[in-house]
């Protein structure tokens, strides 16, 4: 498939072991799970860099265990504070801010990069990793929503490879490997439905951040948990799927599967659907990406289908959760609309978490932001960032 973002799953070259890795977002849910995988297989990895934002205590603990020569934090104050938390006799280089994260993404010492910063802040570091020709284990779906075509070009020009960590896209990657792109008919992403599946509009009017954060199957960071409750996570993911696999939006479907056991399916022209099943724990797709194409043990209970008993599937409720269609429409409208969709969503989720707006205001603010936007060309990262900033400011101003 010529439009696949880096290379078709069957054609991804393998890095030799031990693999030197930079982990961007090491203090987050994905970062912590990745270090858990790495610590189970210390012979397979060398940690070259760790980057976090505000949780300096956890970053210092991780750094003390792995002694990477490079660290990065949000700002100069963070650099000083982190220095004070590190053990005696250990003097890593500590960088900061967007330039710091970008530098760690492109370190010549580390051919493998885990991109696990949350939100649009992950775009430039992911692009830097692509420009530096890295193997990128990509969790930061927002990077592809903002600048998929730009990242694709950078991968092509520099021989970078993207291995998708997001469980659905990882499932698709595995079900696509060994098959011919011409035989592909449809990608079917599964969605858990989130904590509010089956509720009424009346119920959603008054839900609190605490209720929205309580995901039934997955333990994740705050932003993606709210995205799962609004179904915007699935909206971002259908865009991610189009951009990863070079397939039209009309061939990407979503089915709600509350047990989160089937992680996604690929449908072929002969009517076969190939699914990927597993215990819902991100260490499985993370280990797959970090060790690809090898498979290693992870500390996750094996799936026992008899114990699960029943797997169910249903249509998503698009009237209750309009974010899924807002994402579909944004992708179909232009390459600039998804940037506005993402920016308005990040602002709205942040306001909801601070209890400044109601749950149902999230889709309302995003829809209004998309309605204000006129399609524009986005062929360089500066335009992406400028539009992201503008859409954030306009979303706040429209409150
Ligand atoms: P999280 O909030 O738990 O962690 C985010 C990480 O990014 C932390 O290390 C934080 O310090 C860092 N960070 C936050 N703001 C930053 C900034 N401005 N600059 C630099 N670093 C910053 O998030 P998470 O749940 O681990 O998710 C990370 C990414 O992975 C997201 O894009 C999410 O959509 C994706 N993802 C997560 C899961 C999951 O199960 N958690 C599953 C699939 C995809
Ligand atoms: Mg996912």
Question: Can you put this structure into words, describing what you see?
Answer:
- This protein has 399 residues and is an alpha/beta fold.
- 46% of the residues lie in helices and 15% in strands.
- It is built from 17 helices and eleven strands.
- The strands form two sheets. A seven-stranded parallel β-sheet has the order 4-3-2-1-5-6-7, sandwiched between helices. It has a four-stranded mixed β-sheet with strand order 9-8-10-11, covered by helices on one side.
- Helix 10 (222-230) crosses helix 15 (337-353).
- Magnesium ion binds at residues 166-168, 237.
- The site of magnesium ion (MG) has 4 residues, from helix 7.
Task: Give a nutshell description of this structure.
With about 400 residues, the protein is α/β, with parallel strands linked by helices. It is built from 17 helices and 11 strands. It folds into 2 domains: about 160 residues, Rossmann fold, CATH 3.40.50; about 140 residues, no CATH class.
User: Per DSSP, what share of the residues sits in E-state strands of 2 or more residues?
Assistant: 5-15%
**Number of discrete domains:** 2
- Determine the fraction of residues in helical runs and give it as a percent range: 40-55%
CATH architectural label of the largest domain: 3-Layer(aba) Sandwich
CATH classification class of the largest domain: Alpha Beta
Mean pLDDT reading? 96
Helices and strands in order:
Elements: E1 19-24, H1 29-40, E2 45-51, H2 56-66, E3 70-73, H3 76-85, E4 93-96, H4 97-105, E5 112-115, H5 123-131, E6 135-138, H6 141-158, E7 161-164, H7 167-176, E8 184-191, H8 201-205, H9 209-213, H10 222-230, H11 232-245, E9 252-256, E10 262-268, E11 273-277, H12 283-291, H13 305-308, H14 323-333, H15 337-353, H16 361-372, H17 381-397
Parallel strand pairs: 1-2, 1-5, 2-3, 3-4, 5-6, 6-7, 8-9
Antiparallel strand pairs: 8-10, 10-11
Helix pairs in contact: 1-12, 2-3, 4-5, 5-6, 6-11, 10-15, 11-14, 14-15, 15-16, 15-17
Bound molecules: nicotinamide-adenine-dinucleotide and magnesium ion.
Magnesium ion binds at residues 166-168, 237.
